[in-house]
Structures are given as structure tokens and as C-alpha cells.
Amino acid sequence: MDDFWAMGGYAAYVWSSYGIAAVVLLGNVFGPLIAHRRIARRIKNEEFDD
Amino acid sequence: MLWLHRFGSLPYFYRISRSIALALAVPGVLLAAYGVYGGLVEAPVDYQQGDAFRILYIHVPSAWLSLFGYTSMAVAGFVALVWRLKLAEIFLVAAAPVGASFTFLALVTGSIWGKPMWGTWWVWDARLTSELILLFLYLGVIALHNAIESPRTAARACSLLALVGVINVPIIHYSVEWWNTLHQGPTVTRFGRPAMEMDMLVPLLCAALGFTLIFGWLTLWGMRAQLLWRERRSRWVKRLFSDG
Fold first, then answer.
1. Between chain A and chain B, how many beta carbons pairs sit less than 8 Å apart?
2. B224 and chain A: CB distance < 8 Å anywhere?
3. Where are the domains of chain B?
4. B42 in A contact zone (CB under 8 Å)
5. Is the pTM above the cut of 0.90?
6. Is the ipTM of this complex over 0.90?
């Protein structure tokens, strides 16, 4: 198991790549969901009824 | 052609897009997870690059989606300009940040991979420079959309930029053959004997397919948000959120 995490000496390179990818992907999952919810709430509050 | 008309209807699209997104998300996440697991655990160590080559399973799918995403935006831009299809405009706008994210990932993971293999984070060679230009094109589409108030005018401007910029896509793809570069040549798409062993190649293909489905899923949710915003004053949206 330690061998796995050590990545043959390339741990810093491999795991930072995967870590950054995870962060970017999660941002892309939650970004539109939050935007969608915010807009839906504003419509529900009748903010656009002129 | 009737189904196309129905699909082009915004309320109908809004209603079914949620289920489509889910239908893309589940196999997408499973495939990507298997691909990453196979790449990190099951694939044998590369005889030249050691374990550093495992960055491939993030880098190649990201690079593939950076090209696929921009090409799909150019197609949507063409459809939006010629047929004035609102859904194509919305796709173009929603796909841009997702595509930009994958382009960013391709550049960053490539840079991290380049350090131990080439001894440098960055070189101004054809492949890396053209991919960086692709990132700027994506950011250009996003900035252009944010800068123009009217959504239809903004979408037309973005469509034009997407169409003009798509010339960069074949340049990126063939850059490793046309110019001398540090970047290695194609391993997956070359004809004849594959350049990779099957137990390295299969997880890579799964990851690429999984990430592509995830791209569709994320873009659909971006489209839903964008659609709601653009149609916020329309009656069908208001009815959607009124009580009772």
C-alpha cells in the first residue's frame, strides 16, 4: 500500500495532478447547480415580475 | 423532423434535461472511476517513465475534451447563426466554462508531467502554445458573453468567435507531426499496431469516454441554469415556479 502512494518516487507529481482534477471537476458540478438554484429562488420571489 | 421541433422547444427541453443529465452522469462517473482506478492501480508501470505516466489518465481525457468541447461549440455556433436555434446558443454559452476547465486541466497536468520527464514545466513549442491559445479562445467566449447585455447579441458574437477559433483545433491535433516538439506523438489514434499495451489502453479509453459523458452532464446543468435565466420573464418559467 505504501508502494502505491509512493508512485515510484513520483507521488508529488501524480497526486497533485489528480487532486487538481478533482477540485476542478467538483467546481464544475456545483457551480451550475448553485447558479440554477439561485435563479430559481429569484423567480420564485417574483423578482422579475414587472 | 417533428421530434427535432419538439426538442427545440425550451419548456420541453427544460423538463427532460434533468433526466438526460442523470442518464449521462451515472455511466460517466462509473466509467471515469473505473478508468482512473485501472490507470492508477491495474496498469503496469511504464518501462520508460515509471509511475509518472499515470498522469496520462487525467491528461489525455482532458486534452481530448478541450478539443471536443470547442468543436462542439463551433458546430452549435454555426447552428445558432444559420437557424437561430436558441438551444444552440444556450449550449454554446454553457459548454464554454466546462471546456475551459478541461483545457486548464490538460495544460496543468501536462506541465506537472513535463517537469520530471522533460526537466521543465513549460516550453513554447507548437503543441503547448496552441493549447494555451485554445484556453484563451474559451476565455474569450466567456468574456464576450459577459460583456454584452442582450443575450441574443452576445450569443451571436460568441458563435462567430467559436467558428473563427475552431481553426486552432486541427492545428493542435497535428502540431506534434507538423513541427518539432518535446511533446510525444499520438499513441491512441495512430493507425496499425497500437502503441500501448491493452491493460494500459482500456482504462484510458474508459476514462476518456467517462469524462465525455461527464462533460455532457455538466454542460446540461449549465444549460438549465442559463435557460432559466434567459427565460426568467416568460410565462412558462413563472408557471413552473408558482405555487399550486
1. 91
2. yes
3. 58-186+212-232
4. no
5. yes
6. yes
